[in-house]
Amino acid sequence: MTNPSIYHRTILKKQIYSASLQTEREIWVYLPPGYNELLTYPVVYCQDGVEFLNYGRIATATNQLVLEEDMEPPIIVGVHVDLKNRTEEYSPDGERFSAYCRFWTEEMMPEIERSFPIRASAEERILAGDSLGATVSLHLALDHPHLFRKLISLSGAFLPPTRQRLTGESDLSGLDMYMLIGLQETEVKTQRGTFDFLEANRLAKELLTSKGANVYYEEDEGKHLWGFWQKKLPSALYHFLG
């Protein structure tokens, strides 16, 4: 019988003003079962925050893993996406990409880690993203290895600009990635055209491992949809926190 407490969610909401983006951005923060502000916790930072909460059901999955599978409880932070500017903020060649990354590392993350008992080390931070959300997360880890070393990639949009960046890296031995891609993701329609995400992930995985990154890589039956990612998200969380 399913434990009804897995459906209880403790979610706090914050508004953080970003000088880099010249706007406020909404953040939600999940506190795990048994949360105690006298303890410290690892943290999972999610791009597309509302989607991870509502479509990925990350709070319910985490509750279940903590309560029934003895997973280490994390604090989870979801950053609201500006849909009209998503590609410009998440894509490495986007006009707002640099500003978004500054918001992340210089404004949002310091504010969150001042406000909650989060372990402030790269080993205790996990970045999570789907599609272009995985792309910006990877670039954050590449640009700031002293801040981020662990990454959950759900069907990452690892297109030529990202693969070119990986080609130029010399040592990625500090990077630990969980990569998921669907076998049906060979014609993914985006704002910038239709791409073979399956092949893009295979190429990115080869580049990552050739540079020494530790990569857990999985291909499975699935399309570029939250219905696919939701099923796999518990395994991704447990990979780092189990």
From TrEMBL:
- Give the UniProt keywords, A-Z: Hydrolase
The record's InterPro entries line, in alphabetical order, gives: AB_hydrolase_fold (IPR029058), Esterase-like (IPR000801), Mycobacterial_A85_antigen (IPR050583)
Database matches in Gene3D superfamilies: alpha/beta hydrolase
A GO molecular-function term, please? hydrolase activity
Q: Which Pfam families match?
A: Esterase (PF00756)
The answer, when asked if Hydrolase is one of the entry's keywords, is yes
- What PANTHER family does the database record attribute to this sequence? ENTEROCHELIN ESTERASE-RELATED, IRON(III) ENTEROBACTIN ESTERASE
Q: What is this protein called?
A: Alpha/beta hydrolase
Q: Which organism is it from?
A: Paenibacillus residui
Native organism taxonomy: Bacteria, Bacillati, Bacillota, Bacilli, Bacillales
